[in-house]
Specification:
With 267 residues, this protein is mainly alpha-helical. It contains 13 helices and no strands.
């Protein structure tokens, strides 16, 4: 559900309290579908209830795979496993299948296997060594791999423009988010959202998004032209003129801005 996904973004990286990176001890805890520990605080030597991964995996190999899941999604072990306190192994029921996220994880593993072994394997002239997809390919430190545009749109729908601007700025200014490549902060990712809103006749929201992007890309002719057109549509010629004038400051030869200014000024 979109709102649920965005709530997760707002409650983690967006607020500066993103799910903490998994410690070495917690990574070991994140053993998908392994059997209950024989002694509290110990990792079972032989995993049980493996449904997708090979049943003869060694404990070390399985832990290494789980470490990849944990880091790729930026989550702790109890994201998929039930029980325990999130710190120690005590009380964790590795074999339990009652957490829906564990079932989803198995589905994602099957999807990744199909992509690598069937879909990508059928590509003509595939690279050698072949490029494969893995959890980090899409997730990049986020439990749900939604795009920046979708995260902003969800917040816009639920909480309005001010919260959307605040979310964008928190994400953009969070060094951890930027270094992980969690979102595309390029100009066009957000411009596309503005265009989607314009096509949906949500002109006020489109103006808010383009204005936000313009604060980060103040020399973008595309953003200024879009804002000029939007203000024309909303019946605010003075604001439209100011944006077209800005276009000519950036590029005096821009024919569209000159034409629109001539029209708005009556000649």
């Amino acid at each position: 559900m979109r709102h649920q996904a965005e709530a997760e973004v707002r409650g983690s990286a967006a607020s500066g309290t993103r799910p903490p990176r998994t410690s070495a001890a917690c990574v070991l805890l994140a053993v998908l579908a392994v059997g209950a520990t024989s002694l509290a605080g110990q990792i079972p030597e032989r995993p049980t209830n493996l449904r997708v991964l090979p049943t003869d995996l060694s404990r070390d190999s399985l832990v290494e795979i789980m470490r990849g899941f944990s880091f790729a999604l930026g989550v702790r072990c109890q994201y998929c496993h039930t029980g325990g306190d999130g710190i120690s192994f005590e009380g964790v029921d590795f074999a339990d299948d009652s957490d829906p996220d564990k079932i989803k994880a198995r589905a994602m593993l099957r999807m990744v296997g199909n992509l690598n072994d069937v879909v990508l394997a059928a590509l003509p002239e595939r690279d050698d060594p072949p490029v494969s997809v893995w959890c980090k390919t899409c997730h990049r430190g986020r439990p749900r791999p939604i795009s920046l545009a979708d995260a902003l749109l969800s917040t816009l729908d639920e909480l309005g423009p001010d919260s959307t601007v605040a979310l964008y700025n928190r994400l953009r200014d969070d060094e951890r988010v930027v270094l992980a490549g969690s979102f595309d902060f390029g100009e066009w990712e957000t411009n596309v959202l503005g265009e989607r809103l314009r096509r949906a006749s949500r002109l006020t929201d489109a103006i808010a998004i383009y204005t936000l992007n313009g604060s980060r890309y103040p020399e973008s002719i595309g953003i200024e032209l879009a804002l000029g057109a939007l203000y024309e549509q909303t019946g605010d010629p003075e604001s439209a003129i100011s944006h077209y004038e800005r276009v000519l400051e950036l590029n005096p030869d821009n024919a569209r801005a000159r034409d629109r200014l001539a029209e708005l000024r009556g000649g």
